[in-house]
């Protein structure tokens, strides 16, 4: 294309957009970047057939809406040059300086990340994304604006590419924009992705909006006028803005609340912008005097700001016809941060860097977001921590001294303890909320005062992982458990190895274990034993690594008397009748004096009775291999009360090689009866197979495993 061919935004247009908020902009450098980018992209075209250079110019224009600095705008103009043209890093640095070259290189690296790939790869790429962000957050500002323009023009792509980009936007870029405080961008990204992923759903919401407007008229204009009237009466100078929420935001609320559009009330949002903080509270008073506040929907983010600097008062009131409306009240400066989030640090107002007291230092913000990620070695754990941090809303609690602790919604006293200090979290044994002792799994609420109770010698429990929600707490708990568990796993692994080697007539000597470790690529024999104890590898695999010719054939039966591994020599066991654990299920042992060990399924409800007696717990495993069908389990059946039904059921059970040892009628009715059948099985897989067979029988109304939690296994005191 020739030089005079149409460009949607000229250099003059772009400079005008910058001059609007920064009269001292370096016009010469911006024009030079514009010309250089246009020259480098020259004949390149987008999927739509328009000049490719229209895209980087549009990205720069989006960034001017956030009042950003010259370096960020120039980076936007050049963000694809190193990747897609003959331009090089050194040439960009020579022409525009090393700061801009670094930013362009950072955006290029982000562009090369395939964030929609497998979970392991995704976690690895998230690490790279946060590393790039930690160097200079402006890299992600350019990338988010780049993604926004691509989503605005996504129709030119192939359908499968559209779906891929939309999912990536919904999963990663939209929540990231929200976490950075750029709520307007989050909403638009979500809605553009929604348009691709569920066009019918979006269209139905828009149609309902149109119908609602026909029925009720311009609700926004009426309520805005009412609010202005009330503020004038109270002598509060403020601007009032109203809008309907984005289709995706409404769709998500419909899904979360399982409500139809007609029943969804808060579909309109209103914003009151005041001159100072005092007027925010005066405006709130005026609104609450005129309309009834909805309980539980008030949040004061002015006195308790979010970590990304967001400050605002949120309230929901019942407006005309009982319809709920959301109202946000904040000052002009707070609104700047609310619009641009962390980007407010670089924004300009009237030619100077905006000295906004509410803007967050990006370096501090990114450190709070990433401090726990380096500790996470496991990809799934890392990904979980990242997504939790990105999606989390917050609650604000107080220490006994009145200091504020910010936590994600759903946080518990354990999260609170680790937020204060890792050492406090490690030693936590209890907590008081508003001076009352509460369980550690209690969900904290806004404004509560929390006191952590600690004790020397305490260490994190495995159950804490089910209670904690913050990445910092979960990372610290996992590290502590790994260190504590290693010694335990090594001990259990040694017992597993001894038993496995004895099965083939050999001894698990240090030399044999070292040989196995070398063959299985473990660091050493201790690492091998730890992995064996934690069930990462099996005893069979260890033996096979040393004596492949001695490993028993798959069909060899396991002796029922030696079916459990982890017992001391001479120690005997019995299965708990309450949960009737079967081979193949995870088990734990509880010691009883004069009675040996009672083996329970790890999820047995009765285990809570022994929580305070950890010295009685034993780590146990079922022996690998084929077990004989001698392990009793109980099945609860509801059968049609027809002639011959029970006989057919008994025949079916026999055909699955399960033996019926007892049968008990629980309830008899004219049309059905409820029975308990005691069967002897090989393992849990045998049980599932039997239940599937019975479920397929037309005369069986329901089938389930029966566990008798009323049966007490503690008659003999320890």
UniProtKB/TrEMBL annotation:
Pfam families: ACT_4, HD_4, RelA_AH_RIS, RelA_SpoT, TGS
EC number in record: 2.7.6.5
UniProt cross-references to SUPFAM superfamilies, sorted A to Z: ACT-like (SSF55021), HD-domain/PDEase-like (SSF109604), Nucleotidyltransferase (SSF81301), TGS-like (SSF81271)
HD domain location: 52-151
Residues annotated as domain ACT: 634-708
InterPro entries registered for this protein in UniProt: ACT-like_dom_sf, ACT_dom, Beta-grasp_dom_sf, HD/PDEase_dom, HD_domain, NT_sf, RelA/Spo_fam, RelA/SpoT_AH_RIS
Domain called TGS: residue spans: 389-454
Keywords in alphabetical order: Hydrolase
Reactions accelerated catalytically: GTP + ATP = guanosine 3'-diphosphate 5'-triphosphate + AMP
MF-aspect GO terms: GTP diphosphokinase activity; guanosine-3',5'-bis(diphosphate) 3'-diphosphatase activity
Gene Ontology biological process terms from the UniProt entry: guanosine tetraphosphate metabolic process; nucleobase-containing small molecule interconversion; response to starvation
GO cellular component terms, semicolon-separated: plasma membrane
NCBIfam families hit by this protein: spoT_relA
Entry similarity comment: Belongs to the relA/spoT family.
Function: In eubacteria ppGpp (guanosine 3'-diphosphate 5'-diphosphate) is a mediator of the stringent response that coordinates a variety of cellular activities in response to changes in nutritional abundance.
Name of the protein this chain belongs to: GTP pyrophosphokinase rsh
Organism field: Roseobacter litoralis (strain ATCC 49566 / DSM 6996 / JCM 21268 / NBRC 15278 / OCh 149)
């Amino acid at each position: 294309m020739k030089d005079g061919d149409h460009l949607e935004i000229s250099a003059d247009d772009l400079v005008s957009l910058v001059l609007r908020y920064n009269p001292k902009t370096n016009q010469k450098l911006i024009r030079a970047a514009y010309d250089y980018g246009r020259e480098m992209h020259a004949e390149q075209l987008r999927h739509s057939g328009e000049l490719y250079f229209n895209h980087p110019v549009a990205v720069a224009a989006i960034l001017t809406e956030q009042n950003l600095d010259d370096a960020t705008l120039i980076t936007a103009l050049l963000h694809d040059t190193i990747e897609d043209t003959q331009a090089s890093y050194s040439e960009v640095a020579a022409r525009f300086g090393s700061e801009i070259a670094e930013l362009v290189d950072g955006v290029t690296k982000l562009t090369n990340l395939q964030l929609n790939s497998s979970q392991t790869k995704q976690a690895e790429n998230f690490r790279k994304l946060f590393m790039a962000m930690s160097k200079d957050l402006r890299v992600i500002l350019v990338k988010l604006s780049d993604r926004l323009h691509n989503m605005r023009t996504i129709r030119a792509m192939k359908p499968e590419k559209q779906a891929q980009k939309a999912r990536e936007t919904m999963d990663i870029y939209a929540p990231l924009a929200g976490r950075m405080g750029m709520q307007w961008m989050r909403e638009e990204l979500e809605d553009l992705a929604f348009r691709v992923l569920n066009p019918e759903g979006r269209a139905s919401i828009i149609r309902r909006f149109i119908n609602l407007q026909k029925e009720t008229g311009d609700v926004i204009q009426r309520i805005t006028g009412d609010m202005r009237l009330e503020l004038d009466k109270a002598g509060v100078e403020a601007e009032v803005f109203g809008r309907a929420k984005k289709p995706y935001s409404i769709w998500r609320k419909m899904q979360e609340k399982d409500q139809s559009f007609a029943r969804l009330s808060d579909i309109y949002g209103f914003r009151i912008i005041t001159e100072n903080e005092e007027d925010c509270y005066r405006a709130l008073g005026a609104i609450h005097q005129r309309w009834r506040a909805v309980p539980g929907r008030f949040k004061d983010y002015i006195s308790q700001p979010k970590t990304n600097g967001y400050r605002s008062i949120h309230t929901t009131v019942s407006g005309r016809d009982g319809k709920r409306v959301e109202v946000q009240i904040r000052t002009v400066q707070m609104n700047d941060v609310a619009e641009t989030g962390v980007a407010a640090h670089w924004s300009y107002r009237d030619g100077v860097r905006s000295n906004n007291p509410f803007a967050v230092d990006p370096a501090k913000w990114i450190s709070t977001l990433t401090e726990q990620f380096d500790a996470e070695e496991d990809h799934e754990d890392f990904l979980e921590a990242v997504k939790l941090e990105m999606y989390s809303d917050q609650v604000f609690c107080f220490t006994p001294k009145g200091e504020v602790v910010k936590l994600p919604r759903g946080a518990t006293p354990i999260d609170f303890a680790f937020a204060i200090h890792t050492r406090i979290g490690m030693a936590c044994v209890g907590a008081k909320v508003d001076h009352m002792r509460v369980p550690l799994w209690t969900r904290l609420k806004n404004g509560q005062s929390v006191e952590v109770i600690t004790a020397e010698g305490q260490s994190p429990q495995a159950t804490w992982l089910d209670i904690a929600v913050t990445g910092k707490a979960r990372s610290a708990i996992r590290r502590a458990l790994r260190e504590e568990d290693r010694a335990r796993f090594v001990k259990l692994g040694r017992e597993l190895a001894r038993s496995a080697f004895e099965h083939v007539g050999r001894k698990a000597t240090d030399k044999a274990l070292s040989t196995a470790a070398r063959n299985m690529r473990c660091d050493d024999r201790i690492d091998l034993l730890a992995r064996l104890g934690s069930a990462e590898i099996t005893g069979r695999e260890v033996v096979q690594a040393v004596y492949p010719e001695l490993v028993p054939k798959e069909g060899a039966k396991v002796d029922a008397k030696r079916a459990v591994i982890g017992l001391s020599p001479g120690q005997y066991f019995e299965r708990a009748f309450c949960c009737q654990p079967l081979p193949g299920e995870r088990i734990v042992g509880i010691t009883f004096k004069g009675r040996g060990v009672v083996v329970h399924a790890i999820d047995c409800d009765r285990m809570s009775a022994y929580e305070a007696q950890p010295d009685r717990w034993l780590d146990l495993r079922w022996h690998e291999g084929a077990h004989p069908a001698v392990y009793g389990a109980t099945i609860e059946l509801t059968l049609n009360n027809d002639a011959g039904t029970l006989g057919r059921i008994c025949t079916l059970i026999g055909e699955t090689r399960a033996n019926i040892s007892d049968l008990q009628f629980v309830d008899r009715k004219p049309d059905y009866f409820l029975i308990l059948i005691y069967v002897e099985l090989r393992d849990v897989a045998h049980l599932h197979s039997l239940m599937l067979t019975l479920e397929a029988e037309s005369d069986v109304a329901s089938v389930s495993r029966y566990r008798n939690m009323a049966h007490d296994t503690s008659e003999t005191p320890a």
